[in-house]
Amino acid sequence: MAASFNTDAPASGAWENLSEEDRQRLADRSRVHRLRKELETRPTLWKRLILLLTLVGPGILVMVADNDAGGVITYAQTGAAYGIGFFIPFLLLITPVAYVVQEMTVRLGAVTGRGHAEMIWGRYGPFWGSFSLIDLVIANVLTLVTEFIGITVGLKVFGVPPIWSAIGAFFLIAGILLFLRYSSWERVSLWIAAGNLVFVPLAIAAHPHWSQVVAALGTWHIPAGVAISGFLYVILANLGTTIAPWMLFFQQSSVVDKGLTVKDIRAGQIDTALGTFAMGVVAIALVVLTGTWVFGTPGAASFGIHRIMAALVHSPIGSIGTSLFALGLVEAGLIAAIAITASTSWAVGEALKLPRSINLPPQRALPFYLSGLLGTALAAIVVLIPNAPLGFLNLTVQVVASIFMPAAMLFLLMLLNDAEIMGEHVNKPWQNLASFAIVAMLIFANGLYGVSVVFPHLL
Length: 459
Known about the structure:
There is one protein chain. Helices cover 75% and strands 0% of the residues. It is mainly alpha-helical. α1 (20-41) packs antiparallel against α2 and α15 crosses α16. It is globular, with a radius of gyration of 22 Å. Mean pLDDT is 84; it is low at 1-10.
């Protein structure tokens, strides 16, 4: 299965035979080609940095978007309900899992020049292609509901009615997707993603007991008296917000739309590692913040995000810090909604063989754009349903993501071990071992939770 686009510069006379999206990618690649030539002629640290900054984007975006509104709410509820004793070490353990998984999408996209959905349909046929696509679309719409929960809850702190915040967010997401070409879309998204870091200074400003944080790493204990089924449910939610099916489809298609090639795999790995580090730091900061100042409050185990923010007002961060927390929640929902909407459009476009590139104007690829935007509009409507159990829905969505993930991982692993597709870039033995361990962990956690629900007195 040859790559559809995997060159640095067009062959002489071939320009007119290229699709519009490939022409746009080649225009971007020409800058990369020029930077590489300059680096070969006169290698300097500055030129290396400029080249790296030109190539990064998909990895940072997918990882920061993974700390979405649902993730922020999940981590905040986790700290509030269980403190830091178990979940700080747990997050340190599972954060590298995201890198192992997403690095594979970098190689697959760079080698083949094709998106994840297109690879599954082309290699395994319409049945399994439809299966993976339906799983993705369902999970994406459910996840987008949590993004709009975060956006509406965050803006409500500033007096914005939910209907206006949902409508405003939808049109902002649609405008960014429809009217920016890929390079501009990526840079605007990265600027929005930078706001995710606001939770780190908030955690520091809360003056947590750092000795207790360090001690948690050595003791790693489950809080006494917890209900096992509820605890397992939260573990699954944390797994689901760390790795999710949409991430596979998003990063691989983003790598393709950006025009990365096998020469860029190393830069893509660095990009993904930087994003993984940022994701882990923010997740831990959130658990530290609420685990220090909300955990132990009467009824904290059942607090929703409204009650958590109300409790944070009385912490050292005060009302100003809580307002910044609310803005961070809005940012987290917005950047994830941008990424997830794009992932749906890319996947549907690849499956249905539509023109599928953010480089294309709306009039050239309207069905491609609409496939993602329709799911986003549906999610915005669901959030506005009166008396919807939003807190329960948020955790449930993360659990659904963890349930869907093993199947998505198996497709990814089959593709990464297909020598006909990957050539010398097939998975190494340690990568397969790590990946199968991740799949086993997900299946075991899902199975254990199922047993706890069906036979609550067995555990």
